[in-house]
Amino acid sequence: MAWRLRLAPEKTNINFFAHQWLTFGGSMLLMVLAFVFWGTLG
Q1: pLDDT of 4-15, one tens digit each?
Q2: Alpha-carbon gap, residue 29 to 31, rounded angstroms
Q3: Cα–Cα distance between 4 and 19 in angstroms, integer?
Q4: Distance in angstroms (rounded) separating the CA atoms of residues 37 and 33
């Protein structure tokens, strides 16, 4: 019988959507900055 690799406990209670709007806004800001730098600095 093969042993399963357990990297995390089976019963996890992590709320991944707790800060979804903050991280979405940060991603949008970084994407806009990337386009601005690409357009101005080449």
Answers
A1: 888 888 888 888
A2: 5
A3: 32
A4: 6
DSSP E strands, the chain: none
Task: Enter the DSSP assignment of 13.
Answer: -
User: How far does CA 18 lie from the centroid of its chain?
Assistant: 12
- pTM for the model stands at 0.61
What gap in Å lies between CA 35 and CA 25, rounded to an integer? 15
Local structure of residue 21 (DSSP, 8 states)? H
Q: Kind and range of the H or E element at 23? A: helix 20-41
